[in-house]
Design brief:
seven-stranded antiparallel beta sheet, about 25% helix, alpha+beta, about 40% strand
Length: about 130
C-alpha cells in the first residue's frame, strides 16, 4: 500500500492546525542514509499586505534555501520528499504533536502525542489578532 494517502491525511492535520490557530511548527526529518538534504522546516509567514504563506527552508549540508508557497503548493512540494530522503514529518501544535512515520517496509503511520509547545507560532497568533483566516 502506498504511503501517499496517509501523508495526505497528515497534511489535513497541518491545514486544520493553521485554521484553528494551534500550529507551532512542522519539520521533515530522519533521512535515509547520508544525504545532502538534512531537514525541511515549514513555518507560517505573512507577506506584504498580510498575505499568508508558508516558508519552506531546506537545510542542506552546506547551505539553506528558503522559498514561499501557499498551503496547497507546499503539500505538492513536500510530498515527494517523503520516502526520499525523509521518513518522518513532525507537526507540532498546541493541542498535540502529530508524527507521520514510514517504517523500514515503508508502511506509513500517524502517531499523536502530548504537545511539546504551549503557544502557537508568532505568525499564527498575529493572524488571529488581526482577524486573518485561511
Amino acid at each position: 500500500m502506498s504511503y501517499q494517502p496517509v501523508f495526505a491525511l497528515f497534511w489535513e492535520n497541518v491545514k486544520k492546525s493553521i485554521q484553528n490557530g494551534t500550529y507551532a511548527k512542522l519539520t521533515l526529518a530522519k533521512t535515509i542514509g547520508d544525504t545532502e538534504l538534512k531537514n525541511i522546516y515549514v513555518r507560517p509567514v505573512l507577506l506584504e499586505n498580510d498575505v499568508f504563506s508558508l516558508s519552506l527552508t531546506a537545510k542542506y549540508k552546506t547551505e539553506e534555501i528558503e522559498s514561499f508557497h501557499t498551503l496547497d503548493e507546499a503539500f505538492m512540494i513536500l510530498a515527494p520528499f517523503m520516502n526520499n530522503p525523509f521518513l518522518t514529518a513532525l507537526l507540532f501544535t498546541t493541542e498535540n504533536d502529530i508524527t507521520f512515520k514510514l517504517n523500514k517496509k515503508r508502511v506509513a503511520s500517524i502517531i499523536e502525542q502530548a504537545p511539546t509547545f504551549k503557544n502557537a507560532s508568532d505568525v499564527i497568533m498575529e493572524m488571529q489578532s488581526k482577524g486573518i483566516s485561511i
